[in-house]
Amino acid sequence: MFDIKQKVGVLGGGQLGLMLLQAAIDWNLNVKILDAADAPCAAIAPEFVEGSLQDYDAVYQFGQDVEVLTIEIEKVNVEALEALEREGKKVFPQPHVIRLIQDKRLQKQFYREYGLPTADFVLTANREDVRNYADFLPAFHKLGKDGYDGKGVQRIASPADFDKAFDAPGLLEKAVDFDKELAVIVARNERGEVATFPTVEMVFHPEANLVEYLFAPADISPEIERQAEELAKKTAQAIGIVGLLAVEMFLTKDGQVLINEVAPRPHNSGHHTIRANFTSQFEQHWRAILDFPLGDTTAYTPAAMVNLLGEEGHTGPAHYEGMEEILATHGVFPFLYGKKITKPFRKMGHITVTDSNLAKLKEKAEWVRGALKVVTK
Amino acid sequence: MFDIKQKVGVLGGGQLGLMLLQAAIDWNLNVKILDAADAPCAAIAPEFVEGSLQDYDAVYQFGQDVEVLTIEIEKVNVEALEALEREGKKVFPQPHVIRLIQDKRLQKQFYREYGLPTADFVLTANREDVRNYADFLPAFHKLGKDGYDGKGVQRIASPADFDKAFDAPGLLEKAVDFDKELAVIVARNERGEVATFPTVEMVFHPEANLVEYLFAPADISPEIERQAEELAKKTAQAIGIVGLLAVEMFLTKDGQVLINEVAPRPHNSGHHTIRANFTSQFEQHWRAILDFPLGDTTAYTPAAMVNLLGEEGHTGPAHYEGMEEILATHGVFPFLYGKKITKPFRKMGHITVTDSNLAKLKEKAEWVRGALKVVTK
């Protein structure tokens, strides 16, 4: 039943919250946000509550007067969400999904158990333990919990790198000889409808381990497209998520599609959908968690997305260099997150680029990367 | 110079303000809104000031700490804006433009003076005066000031209708035997760049005198399209407006394009641009008044727009009937204004419909008109 009066609570008021609020305006949704006072959403949320996402009492209290709760970041107090769920609140994604995704070790075991193809791995207890797997290299050591935005991953190319391993529960994942990194965002609503956005291709920043460029559609065969979308749907159904699931994948050089990681929320790999698809990932998130019919994910134009990262060597109040040229160029759409302070590689915004011509699209995306800079004065 | 820190004040926090705020999120604009406490924007404006738009002191005080001032409704205190302009604030559209547009008599005389084609008219002092123009009928009597949303216009078909004329300064305009009603939204920024959105075709509700359906693009020849866009540009340049100008026109049965009325702000005839054009009219408004380069107005899909008017016979707390079916239909995008109380013919929202097939587009628009209703329980 469509009830625009119901109150929805969002844990987290960062840039994803900002874009969720922007989409919520269309339906005049009654949204309340929990986060620290300096969060980007503070000024524009219909209701904003200051508090820590990881504090049991803050989350539990926040959930008291809402009908539906959701998240825009996984690092939240799941115990409080479980208590709210027991008391009859709808919490989407469900607490058990958040728990699964907070722990990369559980995640990988889940893929194995459900026959979802993923890179080979072993669980490791601590740094010492990792040294037992010299024959498993080259590999990536991943922290079980608390990794985010490229942090919590170390490449272990040879035994000489073992010192870089985390001294905490983690997993060692065989390095995949991949051709491309792909992502599919899939939505699933309470009644079990499932819909995928077209597969995108991600190019990572070599140093920051963050998405530097994204291209939609991915340059892959229809058969790989089908496989990637199928894998995303299968994963969403296996997890039983209500909400969005962003599924990052490897396309190996021998043509296999493997799950890398998933995120149970709107994701960096879907920002371009605001400017390139009939339904954005943010609107789709609302549709999924409010049990509305899912929207049309079709793209009306090819698009690229460039993350706007804080310039190296600049820490302090943010200034944007090059906006005039950016705004003068057709098919270039900057989105700024309003973070007061820039730091090297901090995500300060993103730029969506659209062009019906794929070669021009790539050219324009590369130009954009250099044309807009976040610096201190 | 792009400065996202500058504060922009908007007089008015209705549905146009809502859509302006939605567009402002992309660039994290620092927007402050003035309106009554129950205005739709109150909850989501970065800063909201309660006050009357028609009160000199309220508007003057509101303008003190902003760098740029704009409006989303013409009925504002222009004296206060003139004072602020004299003190060096940028006010766009300029107070002289608002003054011109607040008075339909001045507007019509302006068109005549600048050779902008418009329907023949005579100025009338009061109701008695109108009776002198029996040979001018059929005609429309328009109130000089304070008409809005279809109010302030009376059809005078024959002398028997003279009692319906307004007993206030107005103008009597010869009824135009038109084939279609068209509209072009044109933007002009401070540096004088001008850009038009593609011409749209409006179908009015016979009783409420409000746009009932809008189709983009209009079903007109390329030559008429050119004429309509040229007329909009010429008008914007003649007025010297900085901001958006919505130019409503008649296409007469003998192929002439005549200006009907203009509005110096985002307009009902451009709502579909949010879902159908690379730049929306709301983003374009920000670009124009902040002296940014104007955006690409190209449409990526044909679109229709249906105003969601309060159902006849229903006055009270608003409920939305049919949203489930609306949301289940691809290419149908409802936008609700969040007004608590519905009244017959009150604008409660609008629905954008997109389809690459024009026949299906019209079919879908007609279906939408009946499928979604705003009622009281």
Description:
- Two copies of one chain form a homodimer.
- In chain A, helix 1 packs across helix 9 and helix 3 (78-86) packs antiparallel against helix 4.
- In chain A, strands 10, 11, 12, 13, 14, 15, 16, 19 and 21 form a nine-stranded antiparallel β-sheet that branches. In chain A, strands 3-2-1-4-5 form a five-stranded parallel β-sheet, sandwiched between helices.
- In chain A, strand 12 and strand 13 form a beta hairpin.
- Chain A has three domains: 7-91, Rossmann fold (3-Layer(aba) Sandwich), CATH 3.40.50; 120-174, Dna Ligase, domain 1 (2-Layer Sandwich), CATH 3.30.1490.20; 178-375, D-amino Acid Aminotransferase, Chain A, domain 1.
- Chain A is of the alpha+beta class and 377 residues long.
- Chain A has eleven helices and 22 strands.
- Chains A, B: It comes from Runella rosea.
Write a concise synopsis of the structure shown.
Chains A, B: Homodimer. The structure is a homodimer of 377-residue chains. Chain A is α+β, with helices and mostly antiparallel strands.
